[in-house]
Amino acid sequence: VIVSRDSIYASIKDVVREKMILGLASALTLARAKAYCKEMDNISKLGVIPNQGILQSEGLLKYILETGVFPREAKTLKDLRDATAKHPLGFMGAAPDAGQLIALLLKLLNAKKTIEIGVFTGYSLLLTALTIPHDGKIIAMDPDREAYETGLPFIKKAGVEQKIDFIASPAKPVLDKLLEHDVNVGSFDFAFVDADKNNYWNYHERLMKLVKIGGIIAYDNTLWGGTVALPEKAVSESKREWRKLALTFNNDIAKDCRVEIAFLSIGDGIIICRRLH
Ligand code: SAM
Ligand code: CA
């Protein structure tokens, strides 16, 4: 029963996700998202974690989250995650297990200056702000100010707002502006990219200049629901275009000798790049 429901609602979810990522969310798609979320609530009431992630296993994801992630998640992050779940597009929020990995990377890097592309309600943003030191800075960009403002009370409550410079804009012009000033070049320790997938390579070229040698860039959703491993005809039409973009980006990154990479099956797939030169 769960599988058949999931496949019906997955297609609605994809349409909304694509429109949202493209900044084209309309009243119609929002209404469909609300209907989707209502149904997902009903499924959740059955005690099932609806988003199985790339593991495609409710049991394993539940085990990981309940054993190692939720017990260690900061209260403000949990509160933001709960508020995001009520948002009509709440499924876009970052996966908490992937968030845990990002926090660990930030700590290992001793990251102080970071870039966040694709904020939504700010789960990964708050997580980063909580992890970097008091005088750390995050330049965060997303054209959707309203979604950011949903998460803002939690950021304020956590006392980390001063670390965040949120710019309500598509990321590309902001990155270009940063590159106009030499002081920014090679100055960032870390970047998290979780936005419009058709621009990932544009972001990569710019981030390769902004992030310092030895710094890290993490790209989210690189396994696109597992569709990258399926033949095109086995993938629903709404997922095909994004599957193709992920395939191209993944192939290009795999060949880019300016970075070393780790290709991870966590969340919806993350590629971690370390800039070599
Ligand atoms: N990282 C977020 C989190 O932790 O919950 C999730 C980000 S959500 C999957 C994708 C976001 O990318 C959306 O909020 C959308 O508005 C944003 N986006 C879409 N096009 C963009 C663009 N050109 N530049 C920056 N952000 C964009
Ligand atoms: Ca994502």
Automatic annotation (TrEMBL):
It comes from the Eukaryota. Transmembrane segments: none annotated. Methylates caffeoyl-CoA to feruloyl-CoA and 5-hydroxyferuloyl-CoA to sinapoyl-CoA. Plays a role in the synthesis of feruloylated polysaccharides. Involved in the reinforcement of the plant cell wall. Also involved in the responding to wounding or pathogen challenge by the increased formation of cell wall-bound ferulic acid polymers. It comes from Clitoria ternatea (Butterfly pea). This is Caffeoyl-CoA O-methyltransferase. Belongs to the class I-like SAM-binding methyltransferase superfamily. Cation-dependent O-methyltransferase family. Belongs to the IST1 family.
